Amino acid sequence: MLLLKGHTMKETAKLMGVTLPTINTHTNSIHKKLGVKSRAQLIIQYRDLAEEGTKK
Description:
- By secondary structure, the chain is mainly α.
- The chain has one domain (3-55): Orthogonal Bundle (Arc Repressor Mutant, subunit A).
- Helices cover 71% and strands 0% of the residues.
- The two termini are 22 Å apart.
- The model has no long low-confidence stretch (mean pLDDT 88).
- It comes from Leadbettera azotonutricia (strain ATCC BAA-888 / DSM 13862 / ZAS-9).
- InterPro entries: Sig_transdc_resp-reg_C-effctor, Tscrpt_reg_LuxR_C, WH-like_DNA-bd_sf.
- One of its GO terms (molecular function) is DNA binding.
- This is Conserved domain protein.
- Pfam families: GerE (PF00196).
């Protein structure tokens, strides 16, 4: 995920060839599904899930 690699939402939209509102919609959806409120929390959650996946 480009946002997790430090790209801004605007950069992510441009790189993916979609509009900024599309990125906002998807980001909000991800936040709701994972129960996080910030990008920092999202990164931590993603890291923890990735580490969990490598332990199996």
